Amino acid sequence: MPNASRKIVAVGAIVVLAAGILVFPSLAPNPYILSSGVLVLNYAVLATSWNFVGGFTGYISLGHGALAGLGGYATGLLATKAGMPSFAALALAGLLVAALAVPLGMAALRVRGASFVIVSIALVLILLLVFQSWASFTGGSRGLVVPRPFDLTRPEHHRVFYFLFAGLLGVALLVWWLLDRSRFGLGLKSIREDEDKAEALGTPTFTYKLIVFVVSAGFTALAGGLYALWFGDLDPVFQFSILTGSYVVLMALLGGVRNLFGPVVGALIVGSALEYFKVEYGDTPLHLVATGLLLALVVIFMPDGILPAIGDLFRRFDRTRRSSIREVTAAELRDQRKAAV
Amino acid sequence: MSLETHELRKAFGGVTALDGATVSFHEGKVNALIGPNGSGKTTYFNCVTGMIRPDSGRVTYRGRDLTGKAPHRIARAGLGRTFQLCRTFPRMTALENVLAAVPQGGLRSAKAKGDIERAMSWLTRLGIEHLAESEARDMSWGQQKLLELAGVLMAEPETVLLDEPAGGVNPALLDRIGALIRELNAEGRTFVIVEHNMDLVMSISDHIVVFDRGRPIAEGPPSVIRSDERVLGAYLGV
Question: How large is the ipTM?
Fold first, then answer.
């Protein structure tokens, strides 16, 4: 496809996606479906936030669930214990977790590959223990009740938060897009490709990784905090769960980590599937089996994710781009012949 | 003198890779670093460029102490390097590979017009401009070697360290790389080259340093090195 028509397709896809997201609340038949929509958007923000680290640098963090949990608890505690207005608490929570991400990142980003994955898991487990044991402050296993910011009926409450999540998603996507096209982003991607080589070319790899980790943590915490204000009740077991992090990674990988909208598409699919499985087979761990199966299928058949796979499919049907043994495409050959006549 | 090392030492467990290497390379010249396998040449490169930290000793560049500095700082100080087994960014296009060497710039567009023109001019000079939009992983070994060099040159280093530029390269490309090194040197760049291909080394170098067992055993112009008995001994074991 030539550049111009590719741009039209991209813009068209964005418009359809955005319109779909914005129209959904009016089409939702009942508050339960609407609340599922809020959950899916929450996942979309989490997966997009994760993709700042996972997509750009290739560092696979399973610990982002913990960063969301920290954001949730920070928001809840600031609102209840410090008596701050809900959204001021949310903003401050985002900043606090971003600040905390500096020492966390300095420790975790020293190691690569599998070691980094394990360090990120350790973060979740440590925080789970802390928040469960420190009951006098966090409420422990009894949970922490977060006051609702608005006095609304339940459907209205869902609707407002649906759009708040959509707004946060928009901001996260915009920042990801800005980084993607920047020199800083190219430096991050070169880290993903070959970190030592990037360093040898003059890229301060550690600083780059740390900056993007902090940005990622900030967005993740905001998503977690917004969830706390929406859901109204926090329990360490769910806030600091390996599963949350794993779902988020699955969504990003499924959609495609090199694509701006990859994590969103992944969240739409996995998030909806999770909700469906919980409704249909809620008493069984079948949703976990299904998720595992999905992950296996993606890794085997679409290692780059759904969006790139669809792109490849389109290219396969576009015969003008096929190249022959001569290493020229059919279109180029046609042009050459025209010129020769 | 541009790049100098003083009593550089590095051991990996019981193996002494560098055993007090005191070497100076000449500014504005094509310098070669030769020696049998395992004589410490690549370890020397890695210590100089900060990829590994020497156990002791000093690295200076134009009088500035670079010992133990991070690789990106050393690169910014004007020392660019290639790797022994050529390394590119496999899933980036050739153009992006070269653009990735543009130092910093934060949120400014990675594909600014001026940068693209400069990157394309390097790709053109190395004869791989037709591959600008191909991913590096789809390119041949020789093309990847040229691409790696284009990236290093994009960062505009005053001194270029090449680790085996002739490794796995066909004779025609070898001649081109040799000629290119001379050309780039004539424009004012200093070269330090680790190489096993003696024809290339003898034809393009101004100054040769011979390593054996982690330290220099001889140095001088090609004519002197060619007939040095210690060099013949180290290489041929006679």
Answer: 0.92
